[in-house]
Design a protein that fits this description.
By secondary structure, the chain is α/β, with parallel strands linked by helices. About 35% of the residues lie in helices and about 20% in strands.
């Protein structure tokens, strides 16, 4: 390996390469058209969050004087410049995809995304009425003059910058008009014909500035630092502090200014000056409409012919004729969402716990869930029925803080014991336990350990695994972990769990090193990881050492990967693949061949990042059923097959998606859907 090259890839660039793969799905003409529109919207919303958190972090490092190199060998300024360069390239590709591919393809299907100038007189008259009735009453033009300072511009809001002139005095003034977020991003002109909301407003600015001349008008959007900084050591009321910090979040400093490529220099100069945007590389010029995240409204159109074929999850993991408690007394059950129904498995388990008279207690962690979740309702019903219900709520789940505070209070009001986790740690593990007095008089504990949130909405589009079990050893582990979360307990070990921040990283590294020793001794060895992100340097270095000893290492990662694969004398035995598609790959799996005996396989909530391993409570559970292990191992075989529809990571950090000439590529998601249909 070149001595000047770092053995780690830059995590920010790696994330942008992930979002590039999302964009490639939008560009892929083999996919249904409205699904491509959806991926184009996802690309935009992904990029918004990246700027609010990751780019904001780089800017904060520079402004606070933390100028050391990162593990990829880059100074903050170098990393930021690279981010800006790549982002400009990607948004140019996004704009070209929208203008040159998506819009014409939609038009060919009778779905028209039009500009104001493309509409006819009848359309203009209809939209004029719509403007008068629904838009005009909620608009507030804000002028800048000696009596009116430049208004605060909220993050991610769409705005019109306007220069108006008094025809009597010739005085010019700058004004800002906020595009209401309460209205659809694309307004309906007529059946399946749409126009951007800001163009409707721009065409009627004369109503807002009566008697004035509209000299110039342009659209802009800013992104602000929206990462939270909560010092838990100085407060006794975490919820109150978090609410205060959320109010401050909207006043974060600007980290991105998005403008139309045709923006007038006068307006741009005014925005840069008023926003105090010292770094002009933070300006993104777009040829497509700003905020294409609003394309979700188009992707939601009821055109089944332009979407993925319907898929109904399997509801047979536990027979409807069998009690779920009886089923779990006989065997452990591994569920794979969304291929296995979340409603028919996890929701069913929690509901059974809420209504069964033999159940005495329910304990559960909640990180993110939907506002109308049946699980929250079941926990409330259980508490109101007199059962002891303990809920460990993580109210610091990024961008879900308001929702989590709301239903945490709802749970408390119903009589649930709500705990907000541990000081300085986010509770990210996915655990549920139901304590039941069975008909044979035995008090049993029924557990669920998962890789994804207890969220019935995302369970339909996120790929996740969950283990349901009545194994006493696992139940004892889960009980000890709940005691750690809710009380003052320090478990000295677990039988079937690896738990962060105590045993998870050491446990994985110990097993990586064992595979290294197996290979050196001539015994069978292999490591297979599936995760969302691989960043932790200690884990990566252990994998490099294993590769050097001859251990084949397969990494199946969705997003960030800081490991350089296939580098001679460093990682030549490591392959990295990425699957993106209809469902968001979200499960985490860690497998070790263990010297030729039955593969040891773990599933759970933890990605291989510093925050997961050091600053969160995470849990992995070891699978005990050989058939379940073989099933997941077979999925690894499919993804690592050279004919698979998976992106390959090269040693330089770039990803390539191969095309097969001998028929359709192997698609693991299609395989699993077909398997459930059969």
């Amino acid at each position: 390996m070149d001595e000047d090259a770092s053995r780690f890839l830059d995590r920010e660039e790696s994330w942008l390469r992930f979002n590039q793969r999302v964009l490639e799905l939008a560009e892929d003409e083999r996919l249904p058209l409205l699904e491509r529109v959806r991926f184009l919207a996802i690309f935009s919303t992904n990029l918004d969050e990246f700027y609010m958190v990751r780019v904001a972090g780089l800017v904060r490092r520079m402004t606070t004087g933390l100028l050391g190199r990162n593990v990829a060998g880059l100074l903050p300024r170098e990393a930021l410049d690279r981010v800006m360069e790549l982002t400009q390239d990607l948004v140019a590709r996004q704009s070209a995809c929208f203008q040159d591919k998506i819009r014409p393809a939609l038009a060919a299907e009778g779905i028209h995304l039009l500009g104001w100038d493309e509409l006819n007189d009848e359309d203009h008259a209809r939209l004029r009425t719509l403007f008068d009735e629904r838009i005009y009453p909620i608009l507030t033009p804000l002028v800048v003059d000696p009596a009116h300072p430049f208004p605060y511009i909220s993050g991610l809001s769409l705005n019109l910058a306007v220069f108006v002139r008094n025809p009597l005095t010739g005085v010019r003034r700058f004004a800002r008009v906020k595009v209401p977020s309460s209205l659809p991003r694309f307004m309906t002109v007529s059946d399946q014909r749409f126009v951007p909301l800001e163009e409707v407003i721009a065409a009627h600015l004369g109503r807002l500035f009566t008697g004035m001349e509209i000299v110039q008008k342009d659209v802009f959007r800013i992104t602000r630092n929206q990462d939270l900084e909560v010092d838990e050591d100085v407060t006794e009321d975490l919820m109150q502090l978090l609410e205060q910090e959320l109010l401050r979040r909207r006043f974060g400093s600007p980290v991105r200014l998005e403008v139309a490529d045709s923006i007038s220099p006068t307006i741009l100069d005014q925005l840069v000056e008023e926003l105090e945007l010292a770094d002009t590389t933070a300006i993104l010029r777009l040829t497509a409409p700003l905020d294409l995240g609003g394309l979700h409204i188009i992707a939601d159109l009821p055109r089944r012919d332009l979407k993925y074929p319907r898929f109904v999850p399997s509801d047979t993991v536990v027979s409807r004729d069998e009690s779920i408690f009886a089923a779990l007394r006989g065997r452990e059950i591994l569920v794979h969402h969304p291929y296995d129904s979340f409603t028919g498995s996890v929701e069913r388990l929690i509901h059974a716990g809420a209504v069964d008279p033999g159940v005495q207690a329910i304990k559960q962690t909640l990180y993110r869930t939907s506002g109308d979740s049946p699980i929250v309702d079941d926990l409330i019903d259980a508490a109101e029925a007199g059962k002891q219900v303990v809920v460990v709520v993580e109210i610091k789940a990024r961008f879900d803080e308001y929702a989590n505070i709301s239903w945490a209070r709802k749970l408390e009001e119903a009589g649930c014991h709500v705990v907000y986790g541990l000081l300085g740690l986010k509770t990210h593990c996915k655990l549920a336990m139901i304590v039941r007095q069975d008909s044979d008089g035995v008090l049993r504990r029924y557990c669920h350990v998962g890789t994804g949130n207890y969220n019935p909405k995302t369970a339909r589009i996120y790929e996740d695994l969950g283990l349901m079990s009545a194994d006493p050893a696992l139940a004892e582990d889960v009980t000890a972990l709940f005691n750690y979360l809710t009380g003052y307990s320090m478990p000295d070990g677990y039988a079937r769990l690896l738990v962060a921040p105590s045993t998870l990283r050491p446990g994985l590294i110990e097993r990586i090193n064992e595979e290294t020793e197996h290979a050196k001794a001539g015994r069978p060895a292999r490591i297979r990881f599936k995760c969302n992100s691989l960043v932790d340097e200690e884990i990566i270095d252990a994998l490099y050492a294993a590769s050097g000893a001859g251990v084949p290492v397969d990494i199946w990662v969705r997003g960030i990967c800081a490991l350089r694969p296939e580098v001679p004398e460093l990682s030549e035995n490591i392959r990295v693949r990425s699957v993106l598609g209809r469902f968001l790959e979200h499960s985490r799996v860690y497998a070790f061949q263990a010297g030729g005996e039955q593969t040891e396989m773990w599933i759970g909530s933890a990605d291989l990042m510093h925050r997961n391993l050091d600053r969160r409570v995470e849990a992995l559970v070891r699978l005990a059923d050989h058939g379940e292990v073989e099933h997941l191992d077979g999925l690894f075989d499919m993804v690592m097959d050279e004919r698979s529809d998976a992106w390959r990571l090269g040693p330089d950090g770039t990803w390539t998606r191969p095309r097969t000439d001998d028929g359709p590529a192997i698609d693991v998601q299609n395989f699993l859907m077909a398997q459930r249909r059969d």
